[in-house]
Amino acid sequence: MEKRIKRSKIINDPVHGFIDVPRGVLLNLIDDPAFQRLRRIKQLGLSSMVYPGAVHTRFNHALGAMHLMRQALDALKRKKVKISKQEYKAALIAILLHDIGHGPFSHALEYAIIPNLHHEDMSLALMHYLNKKHKGKLDLAIEIFEGNYERTFLHQLVSSQLDMDRMDYLIRDSFFTGVAEGVVGIDRIIKILTVANNQLVCEDKGIYSIEKFIVSRRLMYWQVYLHKAAVAAENMMLNILRRARELVNQGENIYLDENLGYFFHHPVSHENLSDEVIERFIRLDDNDIEHAIKKWQYDKDFVLSNLCKRILSRNLLKVQFVNETPDSELVRKKKEAFAKKAGISVEEAAYFVFSDTVHNQAYLEGSKEPIRILFRNGDIQDLATVTDTQSIHALAQPVVKAFFCFPDEVR
Predict the structure, then answer these.
(1) What residues form DSSP beta bridges with 381?
(2) pLDDT the model gives residue 241
């Protein structure tokens, strides 16, 4: 009896249902420790302190984005867009690995482990690292990811204002937070995608679905990504790592495991991402930071200890959004009041009392990569120039909100 060969692996996803993963390089990449690490990195950083269900991971998201990429490629092929087997597989690899460079707690600690290193730079470095292991099988995927491949629309499916990354994270984050504003008609949008002049475009019959997508993105930013409690928690985590690094630089002996300690003691930038740096980076995940925080809560340094205890008990700093920059005199007085109450210096109180800004711009009007609408007469125009509502123009305006952060004790 002939032995039956399993040609793919099925993964059950709560958002998309069954995701089919072909055996071969794609499944091998998923099984690689560098990718499996994404199971231990939360998609939304510290948003679970606001929405308890938001504990989904970068692993879930990467698989979901790959699933949508396959749907988009199949939809384009049905419209007679020529896509070779090599391009098809490379596009799936590119979107699968697009977030592999995220560090612990994703965007929340974007520059805290390696200062000034964007996660996309680390993703690219990791793709080259994996490409060596897979003997050049990622060459075309890397070209697509970088935007260097001649067929531009493939890169736009990976990274643009209407890419598979955004489509998956909107509906996934909506699902796990329970915030209904993120629900958009992804199936409809994918069906109206096509290619013209080597660019990814949307058929004009889908304008309203695209508008809903942009509105949903704007609302999700205010309700989830920039929720004031999440803003407080993320800034507290950043201040914890900033204080820990400051103590290390002062020669203090604080707890550090081997891998986290490496990045505290060695200057790393995107110019020197050696194999050693990459291998140490992929050993880090949320668990390492959480373990360090549990240790640091008992440190003799008041700032480090107190911030860690607040995070662990969800005793978050208070956040007030204001229309203008908070009054500097008010900030100074609250710093002095907390310094006196806690018995620390005003400089140390700045870890607890501070102001900053958040930004929200749902659509980049007039950018090099607009959402292009294809009309039946062949014209292609920026979505912002053809919408019959003012909503897109409004959503294209950047909104900057200042906030003031302080402990409840000095309210």
Answers:
(1) 373
(2) 96
Give the 3-state secondary structure of residue 374.
strand
Note the pLDDT tens digit of each residue in 165-180. 999 999 999 999 999 9
**Residues across the chain:** 411
Q: Which fold has domain 228-358+404-410?
A: Growth Hormone; Chain: A; (1.20.1250)
What is the homologous superfamily of the domain 8-225+367-388 according to CATH? Answer: Hypothetical protein af1432 (1.10.3210.10)
The amino acid at residue 104 is: P
Please report, for the chain, the start and end positions of each structural domain, with discontinuous segments joined by +: 8-225+367-388, 228-358+404-410
Please choose, from the candidates 367, 360, 363, the residue with its C-alpha nearest in 3D space to the C-alpha of residue 389. Answer: 363
In 136-283, at which residue ranges do the beta strands (DSSP E only) sit?
193-196, 199-203
DSSP strand pairing (199-203 vs 372-374): parallel
The pLDDT confidence band at residue 390, using thresholds 50, 70 and 90, is low
* CA torsion through residues 87, 20, 170, 238, sign: negative
CA distance 185 to 20: 21
Confidence of residue 141 (pLDDT cuts 50, 70, 90): very high
Nearest Cα to Cα of residue 244 among 267, 231, 261, 268 = 261
Give pLDDT, residue 389: 63
What average pLDDT score do residues 239-248 get? Answer: 96
Query: In whole angstroms, what is the distance from residue 210 CA to residue 202 CA?
Result: 9
CA-nearest of 28, 21, 24 to 66 is 21
